[in-house]
Amino acid sequence: MQYHIGVIAGDGIGPEIVREARKVLDRISEVFGCDFVYEEILMGGCSIDVHGVPLTEEAIAQAKGCDAVLMGSIGGDAKTSPWYKLEPSKRPEAGLLGIRKALNLFANLRPAYLYPELKAACPLREDIIGDGFDMAIMRELTGGLYFGEKKTEEVDGKLVATDVLTYSEEEIRRIAIKAFESAAKRKKKVTSVDKANVLDSSRLWRKIVEEVAASYPEVTLEHMLVDNCAMQIVKDPKQFDVILTENMFGDILSDEASMVTGSIGMLSSASFNDTKFGLYEPSGGSAPDIAGKGIANPIATILSAAMMLRYSFDLDKEADAVEEAVRRVLKDGYRTIDIMPQPTESREGIRQVGTAEMGDLICERITG
Ligand code: IPM
Ligand code: MG
Q1: What integer pLDDT is reported at residue 368 of this predicted model?
Q2: Which of 43, 146, 180, 298 allows an S-S link to 216, with CB 3.0 to 4.6 Å?
Q3: Ranges of residues in the chain whose predicted pLDDT is under 50
């Protein structure tokens, strides 16, 4: 069977990390005989340079025509890049939000798992880490503050800016179902995160999540306020299985969760609608400060490609092979700079490698 993969390399480190993920996919097709066809799609700053806008109708149509899309990252340095002289709706990030909306990618899954080999890169204390942790953040991706009405106006001679936070029960229900479905296949616990002590949208969130929970008696539901959750992720990350939350809270908590796993360079991400289609991207940004240096960690992108094999193509064996190769490369002591042991930890048996070498080492470890 042939799989049609859209590739959005994007900006900054995007092209470097996507190159390695493609290398890994090519290795998979060599070993397992899969047939992947790639189609380059322009989005973000590189699309602005060519078309003047971060996302064209053509790019959306291209993505829709693919079975799945693999993405690197988009955006540049907000202080120096000319892209940020444009109005907000024409900047690189608007392309990403635009494609999420256009493809109805309302569910964003970000697994945060601490590899035992990366304990030394984890900034948490040994007694907190314990046997490690394994959580997944299910973030609502097409609603809330990101997509509510926005305006900046002058009121009585002073500037006033407004961002509206809206959630409908339908939007809450469909993401809650995704979270419970995912928890049912994992450790059977959903922590729904909100700010119900202050926000109406959170009070509705809680009510609908409880309704959905009634259909999943085998899954335990708990509610947690977002400020407490931010604290609990560093205090006791082991308590979490699936964290279900709205768009903005999920953006913030997923960066926090990535740091406790060692680095954002390890955190993969998949965005889904109601079909098998998915947009797979690392959770991190374009890191313009290290772009072109060949030091970025490609593992989050490679693990995102593994999620694509698993969720969009049902190629479980192939996804397992990629994940196993990543585990082995870490076990064998190879690290990109971001996951090197903390200065206080031993570096014995550890070797620092660059982006391309990490990709090659993972490919070498993919066997049938
Ligand atoms: C993410 C990113 C994006 C977001 C940015 C680049 C718009 O931070 O995917 O987490 O805020 O969703
Ligand atoms: Mg983010």
Answers
A1: 77
A2: 180
A3: none
